[in-house]
Amino acid sequence: MLEIRNLSKTYRGASVKAVDDLSLHVRPGEIFGFLGPNGAGKTTTIKSVVGLLKPDQGEILIDGVDALKQPVEAKKRTGFVPDTPELYDKLTAREYLSFVADVFMVPSDERERRTSELLEMFQLQDSLDELVQSFSHGMKQKLAVTGALLHSPSLLILDEPMTGLDPRSSHLFKDLMRRHCDRSNAVFFSTHVLEVAERLCDRIGIINRGRLIAVGTMDDLRQQAAETSSLESIFLELTRE
Amino acid sequence: MRQLLAVLRPMVRSQFGISVFKWRYIQRRERLWEPLLILFALGFAVLTLVLGIYRVSSLVAGASLGHPELVLGMGAAAVQIMTFFFGLFMVISAFYFSGEIQMLVPLPIRQGALISAKFASVLAGQYLTVAVFFVPVVAGYAQHAPFGPAKALVSLIVFLLLPVVPLALASAVSLVMMRFLNRKHRDLLMVLFSVLLIVLIIALQVFTQGAAAQDPEQYVYRILGERLGLLREATRRFPPALWAAVAIHDFPALGGLWNLLLTALSSLVSVVAMGILGERLFFAGLLGGGEAGSRKKPRARRHSTLLSPPNSPLRALVARELRLFLRTPIWVLNGLAPAVIAPVALLIPFIATGESKQIIMSMLASPRNQVMAGAGMAMMLLFIGCVNTVASTSVSREGNRLWISRTIPQSPEMQVDAKMLMAVLTTILAAVPPVVIFAIVFSLGLVHVILPALIGVFGSITGLAVGLRLDVSRPMLKWDNPQEPVKRNLNAIVPMIVAFGYLGLGLYMLPRLLDAGLGAFPVYSLMLGITLVTAAASWTMLRRGAVSAYARLEA
Predict the structure, then answer these.
(1) Distance between terminal CA atoms of chain A?
(2) Which of A241, B20, B31, B69 has the most CB within a 10 Å radius?
(3) Where are the domains of chain A?
(4) Of B382, B362, B379, residue with least CA distance to B370
(5) Does B405 touch chain A (CB under 8 A)?
(6) How close is the nearest chain A Cα to the Cα of B259, in Å?
(7) What is the DSSP secondary structure assignment for residue B109, as one 8-state letter?
(8) Given B299, B305, B410, which is nearest A112 (Cβ)?
(9) DSSP for B497-522?
């Protein structure tokens, strides 16, 4: 579903690569957790995949489409929610979702059905005519996820989706990710919450200093780190300076 | 007073970008081409304007039948009207929408001191405009009247006092307006109310005109025979302009001193009154804007569908641009309102006084001058359209929401098309008032209205496309306050150079075409052809450059 090959990115003026020759593969039906310490290159990788950054080298294939050569086609297959969901404050939730449905060209029979389903799940129906500027962080996050899922993307990419969410919303998110993957789609998300990654992810990738240092199921990671306990211990072991 | 100065100092530094200038261009020596570009563009604009106003002033002073003081009155009136109209939007922007206000309000500073400091910083910004318009007027007057060092000193005092009354009046209007526009649609109401107020004032001026000229013979005899009669007639609706003109003209006679005293007193009274009003109304108006409305009952059920009916991506993108622009008052004030107000304000000197209108109408009897007038209006529309910041700040205004545009599956070409369509739409909207005023006031016939209007709009497209191309390449995306991407954006400077290029070409070509015996239709058609070709070329280049520029945009 998502294939990253030899991705590298150095920011202007920086001497160290933010992402260094990173390759990974996310399969259909899989929730892939992307872990790493602060500044490891998680957000740079995600931004390169969704087209917000131009990598220096490498290939990104989304559902078989080259995201660097055919960005519009790749974007049609992707839903993205950034770490801080900055949405258009001066639009109402209805206007924002209508805009998203229009630009993603969601078929008219599907837009109502999917909107209704997602709004009900996130309990946003009553806020549809309110300006986004009046929304709390959690509500904005839910609206951003609703927008990202409106066009049923094959690949859902989330950057730190659990930040600032209450327990109920956090539970909803996890449930939603699983259901999305059950329809042969894939979820690729970064997180700091190791407990979530451990319980939810089918596979996990750990990035440190721009390089992917470990990838696999929890069992694979335990073998690689010579650790048998929690993901936290494995993470600390693998990312030790 | 100490409190006032303590607040004023950082405000002035922030408003004129003094600290940023020192840090960027002197300490770090970065992007030194920027101040040079500004100096070049603004210097050229200011010089052209100053020389133009000086020539016109000198002509009017010399041709006003022994009444050179007329030009002082007209100049003072024009400056004061402009200060009021532009000031209205500037004070609203400074009082209620600047970033530092949110920072200053929690500090233990009296609201009177805060509002006075804000008023002083806006006033300081007005002096450049006043200098550009009033100094050449005084110089033109000095060519035809006795003028020594003492009069120069009085002129300086008048110059300093000239914008005080209209700006205090604009401040008072904005304080009252913001205090009472305190509901859900406050942003929209504020813009609508300000524009309505200006239209009403202009309409009042136009429709009360000519009341004095019922018996033309007696009227002319009276105003020419009476001392200062012509000046009194020209400024009868603007007493502060009359006082300012007489203060200079009659100095050092008693009448001059008396009028100087009147000018100073009226300025003092207006500032004190504005301060008192500010002490009572400012915080209430400011807090009203930040209040969240009470939670409404669910309204989703009112709609038969959850989302609006499907639209094409292009329409959706244009609608998004328009909604975000129109719902952010500071963007409307900076982008659209000056484009509406500026041409109206430019026409005020012609419609405010019966005398100047009569002179202009007699000049417009010749077909050559009619074409000149039509071309002049086209150039004015073109200039206003080119300097419109709607396109040149379009990507910058997205700020940290740019990730949305960068992750939707629509090509960069379509995204810039949507931004251009929105900018052209606002340009057309902004062109309507001056075109209507021009058509009504001068009654020259449709060919002198429609074709120049088209030239103005198509000519603007080049400026808009150049501005947008720059903004796609180097947008200002990091901002906290929506004022920043429109007020501190240097991308708006280059389209100004495009406008000057057009003006230069027009000034070079027009007399030659008319001398060659061409009539209105061929002249306008040629100008329209040039603007059409450049508009098409610049839009095409914008679309071509958009793909690589969007790819380099890192959100």
Answers:
(1) 33
(2) B69
(3) 1-77+156-241, 85-152
(4) B362
(5) no
(6) 50
(7) -
(8) B305
(9) HHHHHHHHHHHHHHHHHHHTT--HHH
Residues of A in contact with B306 (CB under 8 A): 94, 97, 112, 115-116, 119, 125, 128
What radius of gyration do chain A's Cα atoms show? 18
Is B145 buried (19+), middle (13-18) or exposed (0-12) by CB count in 10 A?
A: middle
CB A185 within 8 A of CB A153: yes
| Alpha helical stretches, state H, B97-110 | 99-104
State how far the Cα of B349 lies from the Cα of B471, in Å rounded to an integer.
36
**Interval B258-315: pLDDT, tens:** 999 999 999 999 999 988 888 888 877 776 655 544 444 444 455 678 888 889 999 9
Q: What is the pLDDT of residues A29-80, one digit of tens each?
A: 999 999 888 888 899 999 999 989 989 999 999 999 999 999 999 999 999 9
DSSP classification of residue A134: G
Is the whole model's pTM more than 0.90, yes or no? no
Greatest C-alpha distance within chain B: 77
- One CATH from 3.90.550.10, 3.40.50.300, 3.40.1410.10, 3.90.180.10 for A1-77+156-241: 3.40.50.300
CB atoms B319 and A76 under 8 Å = no
| Sequence letter at residue B554 | E
Q: Which two tokens stand for residue A51?
A: 């087209």
